[in-house]
Design a protein that fits this description.
This protein has one domain. Helix content is about 75%, strand content about 0%. The longest helix is centred in the C-terminal third of the chain and has 55 residues. The chain is globular, with a radius of gyration of 24 Å.
Length: about 350
């Protein structure tokens, strides 16, 4: 499946370049990546449901990004709101929040307003990206089913459906952490390219459990360090567009194939793919991978404070309060005993 999705991404980059509109590759590619990641089920019912839900989340996120372009305060509120909605709805997940952040950066600085024609034209590339995912998954599924029949193997059993809702403490943590990240990103210099990676890092790091969040922190920080080096080499070499497209396909294949094995592999190979797609056909400066890593470190600090620091301080304060009361009560009891003996 990873190869089919990567070929779909390669076809997008190649076709848009051949048509003389390579800049479309960024929007269509983002639609594909946001729909395909983190992974897709192997059986058709849950896969179709997942792709439709994520596709709708991508298009809604794109619409929100369009309507809030040129209004930073409104965009900030919308980013937090969509991240919270995604955290509450497990089958949506981080897709909605990521779509708003990444598409807001991808869109031109001028607002499209409320003209239905311009809105539809702006949404179309992202919808095409979603459609390519459906086609690529369908091609893989058809070939895999034919191969199983030829080998006499039984069909893959369907897995249990994912629950719709996440527990409210997770939703609260996501809301607080993303709000802090958005506020901090708003304080960064306006000429800093890549400040949005601070928000995406927080959205992707906070998990439903503290243990899962700690594991994701370690995986992202270690993987993104290596990914920043790969991105620096790729961006610093200034390869031609065909070479960029080919390398992106290879890296995306590795990212999608190895992510189910360990998220660290996605953290290694995913950043160069996102950096290329976000600016395609142009390239970020070579140090942009380092900027992204710095934003991930800042995001990790926010997650540590919200998920681990605040609960730890709350527990310490609670225990201290109980301890002071117990100590006072015990000392008073000892005083009474000693007074009774002296009498």
């Amino acid at each position: 499946m990873a190869a089919w999705l990567a070929l779909g991404l390669g076809a997008i980059l190649g076709a848009t370049t051949a048509l003389g509109h390579a800049e479309w590759g960024s929007a269509v590619g983002l639609g594909l990546v946001l729909t395909a990641v983190p992974s897709l089920p192997l059986t058709w019912r849950p896969a179709l449901s997942t792709m439709v839900i994520r596709g709708c989340a991508v298009l809604i996120g794109a619409l929100v990004a369009m309507l809030t372009t040129g209004h930073p305060a409104v965009l900030a509120v919308a980013t937090v709101a969509t991240a919270v909605c995604g955290a509450a709805l497990a089958r949506v997940g981080p897709t909605a929040g990521l779509a708003v952040v990444l598409i807001a950066v991808d869109l031109p600085a001028t607002s499209v307003g409320y003209d239905p024609g311009r809105v539809a034209a702006t949404l179309a590339p992202y919808a095409i990206g979603v459609l390519v995912v459906l086609i690529a998954w369908g091609g893989w599924f058809g070939c895999a089913a034919a191969l199983r029949r030829a080998r006499g193997e039984s069909p893959v059993a369907e897995t249990a459906a994912t629950a719709w809702r996440e527990p409210w403490p997770h939703v609260l943590r996501v809301g607080v952490a993303v709000a802090a990240a958005v506020a901090l990103a708003g304080l960064l210099p306006e000429d800093l390219v890549g400040g949005h990676w601070l928000v995406t890092s927080v959205i992707l790091t906070v998990q439903p459990t503290a243990g899962g969040t700690g594991m994701r922190l370690a995986q992202r920080l270690s993987g993104n360090t290596v990914g920043a080096l790969i991105a620096a080499v790729l961006l610093g070499a200034h390869p031609s567009i065909p070479v960029v497209a080919a390398l992106t396909v290879v890296l995306f294949t590795l990212a999608m194939a190895l992510r189910p094995v360990n998220y660290t592999w996605w953290a290694v190979t995913g950043p160069p793919v996102l950096l290329v797609i976000s600016e395609y056909p142009e390239l970020f400066p070579w140090y942009e991978g380092g900027v992204r890593l710095a934003m991930n470190l800042a995001g990790a600090a926010i997650v540590l404070v919200v998920v681990f620091g605040v609960p730890a301080l709350t527990r310490i304060a609670s225990r201290s309060g109980r301890g002071d009361f117990t100590e006072h009560d015990q000392s008073d009891s000892v005083y009474k005993i000693q007074s009774g003996r002296s009498q």
